[in-house]
């Protein structure tokens, strides 16, 4: 990633400010050039295209603001798989993005339009090398893989009680709760997300599976909260607008198992409420989760809000989630103190930061 500067931030802001007119022009252009799109995709084709371009522009704005082309290219790769499984041709997506590059270049101020257009064109050029499908996250040979398969299949059948019994029996037989989180819950949740992306389960099924896993996690709390306390405090949250909370909840539970006192704020927490909690709980570390690139700007805004506060601003800030795994240096540009790819690395990073700030 190149260094962020005001030109990139202005380009991202400009894309968001003109999002509606850019989307309308794009859809008019693609359907006028290819009238067959309406007959091939049906009566709702234009409406769906408008909806898609709104997401494209939001993700593009995030990548522009951070001057991170890989972030937008990764989003396009995700969209390629997701749309292909919903019967949208990859060639139609490429044409759609090519039209977008034209519209950006024509309608935005010269420097901003050129920069935005180049981001889109670069992503289109890499599309042939992007995967057409995603491999399963439930891999044979991994620790607890038979249990992970059984657990996932029970959830997919809607048998929450069976899934819970599998986990509780495993713990009673000696399986470590940490291993259940890492090798059962985590791959099962990733697999659920993959099946939604590839149109093999519905949104309702995805929500059911996630809610069931959270309920089963709560049944393990007698084991989680039994750890000896070590006098360190964590506040964990999703940014405003992000409703995918299970990942950061798992992180908070890992900190509890290590003896930290955690204050898990859940999904869609307003920034001012996060700041208030940091101060009230005298938090040592703030953990922020963002699951998609669309919410990276909210992470930056939350960090800026925290840093401006005379007391809360001294907290160590860790970020995590899919965008940070794909762009390992992204945390630096947002003003965080570090990033971690999973709960175990988050604990190690938080411990190092705590020791540094305590000396």
Account of the protein in words:
The protein is globular and about 65 Å long. Strand 3 (285-289), helix 15 and strand 4 (316-320) form a beta-alpha-beta unit. It has a 5-stranded parallel beta sheet with strand order 2-1-3-4-5, sandwiched between helices. The chain is α/β, with parallel strands linked by helices and 359 residues long. It has 3 domains: 6-129, Globin-like; 145-222, Methyltransferase, Methionine Synthase (B12-binding Domains), Chain A, domain 1 (Orthogonal Bundle); 227-358, Rossmann fold (3-Layer(aba) Sandwich), CATH 3.40.50. It is built from 18 helices and 5 strands.
Provide tags for this entry.
five-stranded parallel beta sheet; Rossmann fold; 3 domains; single chain; 359 residues; alpha/beta; Globin-like
Number of helices: 18
Shape by Cα distribution: globular
Secondary-structure content class: alpha/beta
How much is the average pLDDT? 92
**What fraction of the residues are assigned to beta strands by DSSP?**
5-15%
What fold name stands as the CATH topology of the largest domain?
Answer: Rossmann fold
Q: Radius of gyration over alpha carbons? A: 22 Å
CATH architecture of the largest domain: 3-Layer(aba) Sandwich
Report on the biggest sheet: 5 strands, parallel
Order of helices and strands: HHHHHHHHHHHHEHEHEHEHHEH
Arrangement of strands in the largest sheet = 2-1-3-4-5
Helix content: 55-70%
Question: Can you say what the CATH homologous superfamily of the largest domain is?
Answer: Cobalamin-binding domain
CATH class of the largest domain: Alpha Beta
Counting DSSP E segments of at least 2 residues, the number of strands comes to 5
Could you tell me how far the N terminus lies from the C terminus, measured between alpha carbons in angstroms? 33 Å
Compute the number of structural domains. Answer: 3
Which stretches are low in confidence, meaning pLDDT under 50 for 5 or more residues running? Answer: none
């Amino acid at each position: 990633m190149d260094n962020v500067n005001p030109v990139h931030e202005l380009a991202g802001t400009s894309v968001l400010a003109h999002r509606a007119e850019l989307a309308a022009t794009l859809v008019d252009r693609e359907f006028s050039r290819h009238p067959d799109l309406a007959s091939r995709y049906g009566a709702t084709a234009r409406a769906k295209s408008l909806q898609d371009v709104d997401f494209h522009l939001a993700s593009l704005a995030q990548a522009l603001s951070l001057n991170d082309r890989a972030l937008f290219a990764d989003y396009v790769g995700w969209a390629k798989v997701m749309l292909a499984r919903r019967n949208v041709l990859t060639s139609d997506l490429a044409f759609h993005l090519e039209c977008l590059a034209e519209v950006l270049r024509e309608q935005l101020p010269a420097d901003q339009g050129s920069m935005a257009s180049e981001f889109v064109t670069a992503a289109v050029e890499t599309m042939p090398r992007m995967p057409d499908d995603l491999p399963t996250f439930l891999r044979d040979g991994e620790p607890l893989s038979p249990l992970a398969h059984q657990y996932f299949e029970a959830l997919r059948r809607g048998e929450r009680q069976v899934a819970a019994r599998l986990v509780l029996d495993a713990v009673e037989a000696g399986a470590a709760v940490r291993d259940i989180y890492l090798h059962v819950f985590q791959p099962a949740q990733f697999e659920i997300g993959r099946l939604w992306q590839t149109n093999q389960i519905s949104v309702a099924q995805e929500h059911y599976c996630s809610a069931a896993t959270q309920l089963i996690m709560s049944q393990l709390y007698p084991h989680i909260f039994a750890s000896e306390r070590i006098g360190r405090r964590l506040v964990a949250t999703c940014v405003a607008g992000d409703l995918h909370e299970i990942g950061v909840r798992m992180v908070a539970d890992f900190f509890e198992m290590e003896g930290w006192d955690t204050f898990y704020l859940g999904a869609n927490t307003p920034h001012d409420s996060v700041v208030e909690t940091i101060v009230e709980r005298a938090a040592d570390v703030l953990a922020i989760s963002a699951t998609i690139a669309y919410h990276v700007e909210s992470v930056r805004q939350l960090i800026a809000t925290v840093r401006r506060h005379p007391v809360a601003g001294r907290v160590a800030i860790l970020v995590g989630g899919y965008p940070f795994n794909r762009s390992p240096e992204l945390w630096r540009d947002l003003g965080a103190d570090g990033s971690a790819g999973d709960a175990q690395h988050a604990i190690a990073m938080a411990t190092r930061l705590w020791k540094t700030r305590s000396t």
